Amino acid sequence: MRYLIILISAFFIGAVQQGFAQVTISIANNLADGVKDGRLVLLFHHNEQVEPRFAVSDEVHTAQVFGMDFTDYDSGKPLVLDPKAFGYPVENLKDLPDGNYFIQAFIIKHETFAKSDGYTVLMPMDQGEGRQWNRTPGNVYSLPEKINWSGQGSISLEIDQIIPAIAPPKDTEFIKYIKIRSALLSEFWGKDMFLGANILLPKDFEKNKSDHYPLMVFHGHFPAEFSGFRTSPPDEGLENEYNARFGIYGYEKIQQQEAYDFYRNWTSDDFKRFIIIEIQHANPFYDDSYAVNSENLGPYGDAITHELIPYIEAQFRGIGEGWSRFLYGGSTGGWEALAVQVKYPKEYNGCFAACPDPIDFRAFTTVDIYQDQNAYTIQGPFRATDRVGKRNYLGHVSAMLKEMNHKELALGGPNSLSGDQWDIWQAVFSPVGDNGYPKPIWDKYTGEIDKEVADYWKEHYDLRYIMERDWDRLGEDLKGKIHLYCGDMDNYYLNNAVYLTEAFLEKTTNPYYAGEVLYGDRAEHCWNGAPDLPNYISRLRYNTLYLDKIAKRLLETAPENFNQQNWTFKK
Predict the structure, then answer these.
(1) pLDDT at 14
(2) What is the CA radius of gyration of the chain?
(3) In whole angstroms, what is the distance from residue 26 CA to residue 24 CA?
(4) How far apart are CA 567 and CA 571, in angstroms?
(5) 198, 259, 309, 434: which sits with the fewest CB atoms below 10 Å from its CB?
(6) Which Pfam families does UniProt cross-reference here (predicted)?
């Protein structure tokens, strides 16, 4: 079979040019008809223990990736990797060092979207996995092969694997899974688009059919199933498993124990009664929409607040009033919690935003998009230096901002399609460009900042600026609702934007914001406001961490006729 592939490649391509390698990729007959438009990525890795498609990262031990888009694939003919395809961390195929590698070809399929703004675009789409390109059902790939790379000759690979569909999770006594068609999003994208939610119902929900409940909205990355809730004790034999992120053994057991403890609290007689929802809003750009209206993503803010949440409250006896809804989350979820509270100030009664993505674009991680000319370098009169992107709690830097963006450029191309962090920020915050894709905040290759785009970001999504600009209108509706938490050694420098936002909040008058901003000493991403707990524990307790503060808020704001069982306060 391999000999046949090489002959076919030679027939369509001709003789190999002298001096550099050509890479051709054929697609098995049973898969070829399902491929039309997409992005071909070619991956090289040095570690056979991890498939190359799962090894691309910001870190120094990343796999190598080269990428190129293709359209109108001619079934039966091989794809040829463009020798000029952009790569990360090595930019050009000709510069890849000689040596032994495990090589893999992967195709990210694109769909056609005829959007209501008049643009027709080709984009990847979530298939129930949360818009993870290397796990998307229907995407096709080759199995890794060991090669000796010399930069010359011809390499032929066959794509003969397809990622299978994902079985939906099943409802349980306490957990329900729902999905609805969003009329707003379907109109925007020109095809049926859906919102989903994982819902945790309180004890005796079916027994006490006259009770209605407050709603806790947990924002964050795509949740395949409801997380942190387990009805059985931890599994045996997990004590010796090492977790590299936190540097401890037995973390899987800790997670399972926390989830089991939460279940036991949830089902106890004196625990507060409320509904928790985790929202599924993956889209063509990312595993999450950032829960706001956007020129590029569509009206996700309105769809979630005015379509999904009322549907859930009607189906599961939510109270259905703004005073009964609370927002919380960390990182992406932290930004969303604050953004949704600011954008919909009357519809929610408080946000608890931990380690939020940049909430003041004067500190867009380590970039001031208004004053800096280049996102990747700091330029002096005689020399320039690269701008840092990631650190640990000691300040040791592991990635530069340029490298992090070049990874996305190789994976997704120039149109914000990597499914990764910088591209989704650009997609959410930017206006639509002339080609129908997000207008770049900076040149993805050079880092040169577009000041017109920066001004657009400021007016629409710089949360500190929006609050300051509109405090006369927003202040009364945000009073007592804003709670911010961040480690002062956040890995992505997110604390810098929190500092700037705190400086504004503390100066507010008529009214004073009356919330809180707390910092974790030497705490990394994602510290969420529990100074007496290690981060690896507190991150597992979002669903209970803020309940006392929420109860206090309800005491101050709930109507006199609210007498929900177990909230343990008196008017």
Answers:
(1) 35
(2) 25
(3) 7
(4) 12
(5) 434
(6) Esterase (PF00756)
Q: 240 and 272: one domain?
A: yes
* Of residues 83, 46, 90, the one with CA closest to residue 65: 90
State how many domains the chain has.
3
**Residue at 567 is within a domain:** no
Q: Are residues 145 and 209 in the same domain?
A: no
Cα within 13 Å of Cα(328), Cβ side = 21
The CATH number of residue 222's host domain is 3.40.50.1820
pTM of structure? 0.93
Average pLDDT over residues 279-284: 97
- The runs of H, that is alpha helices, within 399-541 are 401-412, 421-429, 451-461, 463-469, 471-478, 495-506, 535-538
Domain endpoint, select from 106, 129, 162? 162
For residues 88 and 152, membership in a common domain is answered with: yes
Upper half-sphere CA count for residue 486 (Cβ side, 13 Å): 28
Q: Dump the DSSP string for 214-247.
A: -EEEEE-S--SS--S--SSPPPSS-TT-EETTTT
Domain assignment present for residue 18? The answer is: yes
**Which residues make beta-bridge pairs with 354?**
330, 485
Please give the Cα distance from 160 to 236 (Å, whole number). Answer: 38
Collapsing DSSP to helix, strand or coil, 443 comes out as coil
Domain-terminating residue out of 440, 459, 478: 459
Cα separation, 55 vs 545, whole angstroms: 34
On whether the CB atoms of residues 514 and 531 are closer than 8 A, the answer is no
Residue 158 within any structural domain of the chain: yes
In what helix (H) or strand (E) does residue 4 lie, and over which residues does it extend? helix 2-13
Q: For residue 350, which of 379, 374, 331, 329 has the smallest C-alpha distance?
A: 329
Query: 8 has which bridge partners?
Result: none
Helix (H/G/I), strand (E/B), else coil: 461: helix
Where in the sequence is the domain holding 510, given as residue range(s)? 175-360+464-557
Q: Are residues 477 and 533 in the same domain?
A: yes
Tell me: the pLDDT tens digits for 201-226? 999 999 988 899 999 999 999 999 99
Do 244 and 346 have their domain in common?
Answer: yes
In a domain, 570, yes or no: no
Q: How far apart are CA 44 and CA 61, in angstroms?
A: 12
| Of the listed ranges 71-80, 86-95, 236-245, 395-404, the one predicted with least confidence | 236-245
Taking alpha carbons only, the member of 463, 500, 214 closest to residue 338 is 463
Q: Is 46 exposed, middle or buried (0-12, 13-18, 19+ CB in 10 A)?
A: middle
Residue corresponding to tokens 């809804």: 325
pLDDT tens by residue, 383-413 = 999 999 999 999 999 999 999 999 999 999 9
Domain co-membership, 37 together with 158: yes
Q: What DSSP assignment string belongs to 378-420? A: EE-SS-EEEPEEEE-TT--EEEEHHHHHHHHHHHHGGGS-S-S
Specify whether 239 is located in the same domain as 375: no
What average pLDDT does range 524-552 have in this prediction? 92
Amino acid at 265: N
**Cis amide linkage into residue 440, ω under 30° from 0:** no
Give residues with Cβ within 8 angstroms of 425, minimum separation 6.
357, 358, 441
354 and 373, same domain (yes or no): no
